[in-house]
Amino acid sequence: LVGSEMCIRDRRLPVQYVIRPNLNFRGFQGTLASGKLQVGDAVKVLPSGKTSSIKEIVTFNGNLDTAEAGQAITITLNSEIDISRGDVIVPASSTAAVTNQLQAKIVWMHESPLVLGKNYNLKLGSKNTSAVVKKIDHTIDVNTLEHGSADSLQLNEIAIVTLELTETILADEYHNNHETGSFILIDRLSNLTVAAGMIEHVLQSEKSKSDFSEFEVEFNSLVRKHFPHWQALDISKL
Predict the structure, then answer these.
(1) Could you give the C-alpha distances from 102 to 130, 140, 148, 194, in angstroms and in order?
(2) What's 217's DSSP letter?
(3) Is the peptide bond before 21 cis (omega within 30 degrees of 0)?
(4) Residue 94's pLDDT is what?
(5) Is 116 helix (H, G, I), strand (E, B) or coil?
C-alpha cells in the first residue's frame, strides 16, 4: 500500500478548468479541497510530478495572499507547465502517490447488476477516467456486517472491490480526505450513476506499456497545452 503517510490537512487543489483569456494569463481553477495555499508556495502537479510555485491566487473579489479549504480560486504559476482538467495541485514536498489500482467500498445503485471486467466511467473530484472492477474482495451484509463472496452485485448491495483504472490518478483514502477519497461509477452507455464508492486503500500502481508512438504522445501534449477546453486525455498515461 502507498500514501499511508498522508495527513488529513494535506493540501489538495483539483483542477476543474484551465483558463487562458489572453496570452499573458493562464490560470487553473478549482475549489481547494483541503489545507491552505499561499502565494509563493512551491507546488507540484499530479500525476505528472512537474513543479512550480504559486504566483497569484485570484478570486472574483480580488487577489488573495492565502486560500483555505472550500474556497473557489484561480491560481497562476511562475513557470509554464503542462496542467489539465482532473490534475491535482499539491505541495512540492507532498508524499502523495498516484496509482491506477484502488480498493474501495462501493454501494451498487442500479437495477442492472455489476459486471466484473466491464468498463465504467469513474468520476473522482474533477477527474474523469474509466475503470473496471477486477474482483469483489467480499460483500458486506448491511444487517449483520458479515462478509460474503460474490461474482456480481445487485441493487443496494455493498462490497469491498478492487478497481483498475485506465489512467494513473491522485487518490486518497476516504478517512484522510473525503473529497479525493470518494467517487462514482457511471454506465458508459446510459450515462447513469450505478455506484458510489469510498476508497479504503490506495494500492501500488501497475504499469502498462503504451501503444502510442513518441510523435503521438508529443502531439497529444501540445493539444492539451494549447487547447485545454478540448479536455483531451493524456495518452502517455493510458
Answers:
(1) 13, 18, 20, 18
(2) H
(3) no
(4) 93
(5) coil
Higher pLDDT, 233 or 179: 179
SS percent in the chain: helix, strand, coil, step 5:
10, 45, 45
Burial class (CB in 10 A: 0-12, 13-18, 19+), 123: middle
Mean pLDDT of the chain: 90
Amino acid identity at 227: F
Other C-beta atoms lying within 10 Å of the C-beta of residue 233: 16
Residues whose CB falls within 8 Å of the CB of residue 51, separated by 6 or more in sequence, listed in order? 42, 43, 44, 45, 81, 92
Smallest Cα–Cα separation from 56: which of 66, 48, 45, 44?
66
Neighbouring CB atoms inside 10 A of 16's CB total: 16
Q: What is the pTM of this model?
A: 0.80
Q: Residue 15, class by beta-carbon neighbours within 10 Å (0-12 exposed, 13-18 middle, 19+ buried)? A: buried
Residue 223's SS3 state is helix
For residue 66, the model assigns a pLDDT of 97
Q: Give the phi and the psi of residue 3 in degrees, each rounded to 5.
A: 80, 10
Please count the other Cβ atoms lying within 10 Å of the Cβ belonging to residue 213.
9
> 490518478: which residue's cell?
169
pLDDT value at residue 1:
47
Look up cell 484522510; give the residue: 176
- How far separated are the first and last CA of the chain, in Å rounded? 22
pLDDT at residue 182, as a whole number: 97
